[in-house]
Each structure stands twice: as structure tokens, then as C-alpha cells.
Write a structure and sequence with these properties.
Blueprint (H helix, E strand, L loop, with lengths): L17 H13 L5 H10 L4 H9 L8 H19 L5 H10 L21
Helix pairs in contact: 1-3
The structure holds zinc ion (ZN).
Zinc ion (ZN) binds next to α1.
Length: 121
């Protein structure tokens, strides 16, 4: 059998050679957590030859899309999911809490809010 990714001999009844198999299993371990450049570092650190990494990234084994596109989409979905989970704590909420000092219903603004920036010329 030939490797479905890099088209080099993969071994008897194997659809992927050892190197490409490692790329896809590392991808499965980290998908949604690491972006493309970070995953590249993982592949390289694992000792996968550069040519095999490139072949695997460009390959579309099951018609879902090239691996590199899937990595990017996984990352975007992961970020969207994270943002959805944290909608109750938007950056604006955090900023408002910090500015009011956690004083709850107080409507008075901290004194330093109206002081002009120091060092103003
Ligand atoms: Zn291969």
C-alpha cells in the first residue's frame, strides 16, 4: 500500500506511512488547542521530516478538507466556543468592574478617571 498522504510506500495494509500517521495522530491530540504554526512546531519537535509534514498538511484524506484548512477551522471554532462560554464576562464587564473597584451599585466614578494623562505637553 502507498501512503494516502505522501504517496510513498506505507507498508502492508497501511493507509498512512509512519511519519504521516504521526502527523495525523498529533493533530488529533492537539486539535482546537493549537494553531497551525504551533502544530508545525509540535510536528517538527516530534521528528517528522519537513516533506512529510507538508504532504500531510496538503492532503485531504476523507474529503473534509486539507489538513491545514481543518487546523485553521478547528482553531476558529474553538475560539468562538470559548467566546460563547465567556459571554457573561466580556472585556467591557471586566473593565467596568475594575473601574468601580467592585463597589456594586455605586454610580460614582473613581477620581483618577477624570484626571488628564500625566506628562501632557
Ligand atoms: Zn506518508
Amino acid at each position: 500500500m502507498r501512503c494516502a498522504s505522501c504517496h510513498e510506500p506505507a507498508g502492508f495494509l497501511k493507509s498512512l506511512c509512519a511519519d504521516c500517521g504521526r502527523v495525523f495522530s498529533l493533530y488529533d491530540q492537539h486539535k482546537g488547542d493549537l494553531g497551525l504554526s504551533q502544530l508545525l512546531d509540535v510536528f517538527i519537535a516530534d521528528g517528522v521530516p519537513r516533506g512529510k509534514i507538508e504532504a500531510a498538511l496538503a492532503s485531504d484524506l476523507d474529503g473534509v478538507g486539507a489538513l491545514q484548512d481543518r487546523i485553521t477551522a478547528d482553531m476558529a471554532n474553538s475560539l468562538l466556543a470559548a467566546m460563547g462560554l465567556q459571554r457573561r464576562h466580556t472585556p467591557a464587564d471586566v473593565k467596568r468592574l475594575r473601574e468601580t473597584g467592585g463597589a456594586g451599585a455605586s454610580t460614582s466614578r473613581p477620581g483618577n478617571d477624570v484626571v488628564p494623562p500625566r506628562g501632557h505637553r
